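Late entry, CO-5-methoxybenzimidazolylcobamide complex.
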Amino acid sequence: KKSATTLKEAVLMGDKSRIQPLVEAALAAGMTPMAVVNEELIAAITQVGEKYERREYFLPQLIASAEAMQHGFRILKPLLDKAEAEGEKVHKPVVILATVEGDIHDIGKNIVALMLGNHGFEVHDLGKDVPAETIVRAAKERGASIIGLSALMTTTMVRMEDTVKLLREEALPAKVIVGGAVVSQEYADRIGAHGYAQDAVAAVRLAKELTA
Ligand code: B1M
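Prediction complete; structure with ligand written out below:
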């Protein structure tokens, strides 16, 4: 089996052993850590998704690629933390973040968590497959300004509405922002969420607007 020579290839091939040297090579060539995430890791996993859709890839390849991508992200995380650490606020608005119930996709959510944390928010990441009750309870306990929900499947994005409803029932002031590949602005409007963000950068912008 030939081994990967580019980072994108390493993710596509699910070749975890090549990730570290290829991340180092990309950084040495002058790419910023964020560019490596966006232009290599995310670009590659998006292609993996397309291959899965066309049935060129099956679940084992999907898993191997996701693990390779996550390995790269773990290596880059401390560098991203450092690059974005400036601009800390004294009083940090609290964000409760979760992937909704029934959904275990958390790569995108983890990137959103990292970015919000780096932009002056106090992020409590509840993880993946989290029921609405748990999310709303955490928002209440922590006095959250923002609840961020992620969903990657058409079957699970409907769970976002549960949180919006429950929040309203409890008359909590937190604003709900939603995201994930299948989610759209239109869907956010339909379920009464306060905002939709297409990616992690947009999520930061939106969270800042909603807490200004
Ligand atoms: Co799955 N999967 N998967 N998967 N997987 C998708 C989502 C799918 C679209 C693939 C496909 O068929 N083309 C499809 C869903 C179809 C649908 O509903 N429309 C799918 C399926 C079907 C499944 C399983 C059911 C497969 C099976 O078992 N038969 C299963 C589901 C299990 C479950 O959840 N109950 C499954 C499992 C997996 C893995 C475990 C192998 C792995 C996930 C590993 C993990 O997350 N720890 C996986 C992966 C990797 C994918 C794809 C290929 C890539 C997802 C990803 O990580 N993208 C995906 C295909 C695709 O999305 N095109 C697919 C990279 C990530 C950085 O992007 O998550 O979109 P994303 O996040 C972005 C933005 O969306 C946004 O910012 C992020 C950064 O830019 N964003 C937010 C995300 N959350 C946000 C929240 C915000 C704001 C912005 O505010 C709070």
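DSSP finds ten helices and five strands in the chain. Will revisit in the morning.
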